[in-house]
Amino acid sequence: MKDNTKLIAAGRPHARYAHPVNPPVERASTILFPTYDDFLEGSRTINYGRLGTSTHRALEDVVTVLEGGFETRLAPSGLAACNASILAFVGAGDHVLMTDAAYDPTRKFCEKFLKRFGVETTFYDPMIDRDGLATLMRPETKVVFAESPGSLTFEVQDIPAMADTAHAGGAVLIADNTWAAGYFAKPIALGADVSIQAATKYLGGHADCLVGTITSADEATAKKIYMALLQLGSNVSADDAYLILRGARTLSTRLERHQENALALAKWLSKRSEVERVIHPAIKGCPGYAIWKRDFTGASGLFSAVLKPVPLPTLKAFFNALKLVGIGFSWGGYESLAVHVRPERYRTASAWADEGPVIRFHAGLEDIDDIKADIDNGFAAMAQT
């Protein structure tokens, strides 16, 4: 099946006569078994609410077939998925290689939490080549963590080369695949051991719940992920799992519109006198553009634009004039967003040279002319300060 069909057909309740189209929301803490044999069988499938119900299994099935993995497990948020995936493979004295373009809370988890327990982290330039990554590997390196594209600056990483290097050194490669939503890129097929998504974003698509997904490439990896989540006491509500599952059914249709709007907006912004440069993986000049063209089948709605240097009151005037485009964190919902981000505050392995403010845009599902008009009003307000 093609991905469009997988998103519709997977995780559907076909086991009984006159079944509903959608899996029901099954909320439970205690699970009862009619016989002892059923109890033994249940211990291998569904046996306690914290470990999930049929609602959770349905969502996990959809993500597994979309990502092309062996098994998917759910976490309470995208960050929880990142953290649990790292914890599954490291212990005291181990070493993690983390992209310098990582989502900042993932970065802080390494810098602050893991450090307390004797796990060291080295941050690497997201555009590092195979040889450069190999020089950073140590005997105690257990995890190489990629985020492709980076969440603020959109460097596209060479996942096949990174996987080869990680595996040669006895480490696993974990890839944050949220931007591509498991639809436009398949890290597991490219060699990654684990593919993570903040399902909060595109899989859910409606900005109304928090869930993370962790898809493992093979059974041995899946067992480690499962045990990490089990020992952390991780839990996702059946209602949130249902909302993500319902959103996933329309993922392909929504992503096509996000892609169309984002490309149109990025090209329009690149011609504005207020803009120094646009950073969009599908536009030539973005770091890793050639890799994106090789490994991705499309682009989502998230990208950044670097403005020419302006004082803070002028930047505030831009944001305060926006009426349609929201000012807010997160992304992946149906609404357009803009937020001022500061990559220079986070980089330690790779310098950020641009002097102007960086605005991260999420192109929503509104009419593109209305999005442009709203941003144009923002630029007009800048000019009046």
Key features of this structure:
12 strands; 16% strand; 385 residues; 2 domains; seven-stranded mixed beta sheet; 38% helix; Aspartate Aminotransferase, domain 1
> Would you count the extended β strands for me?
12
CATH topology of the largest domain: Aspartate Aminotransferase, domain 2
Query: What level of helicity do the residues show?
Result: 25-40%
Q: Look at the helices and sheets and give the structural class.
A: alpha/beta
Shape: globular
Structure, described:
By secondary structure, the chain is of the alpha/beta class. It contains 13 helices and 12 strands. The chain has helices at residues 3-9, 36-42, 54-67, 78-87, 104-116, 130-136, 159-168, 219-232, 238-248, 251-270, 289-295, 312-321, 368-383; strands spanning 71-75, 95-99, 120-124, 141-147, 172-176, 194-198, 212-216, 275-279, 302-307, 326-327, 337-341, 358-362. The longest helix is centred in the last third of the chain and has 20 residues, at 251-270. It is globular and about 75 Å long.
Put the structure in a nutshell:
The protein is an alpha/beta fold and 385 residues long. It has 13 helices and twelve strands.
What is this structure's SSE topology?
Layout: H1 3-9, H2 36-42, H3 54-67, E1 71-75, H4 78-87, E2 95-99, H5 104-116, E3 120-124, H6 130-136, E4 141-147, H7 159-168, E5 172-176, E6 194-198, E7 212-216, H8 219-232, H9 238-248, H10 251-270, E8 275-279, H11 289-295, E9 302-307, H12 312-321, E10 326-327, E11 337-341, E12 358-362, H13 368-383
Parallel strand pairs: 2-3, 2-4, 4-5, 5-6, 10-11
Antiparallel strand pairs: 1-7, 6-7, 8-9, 9-12, 11-12
Helix pairs in contact: 1-3, 3-9, 6-7, 12-13
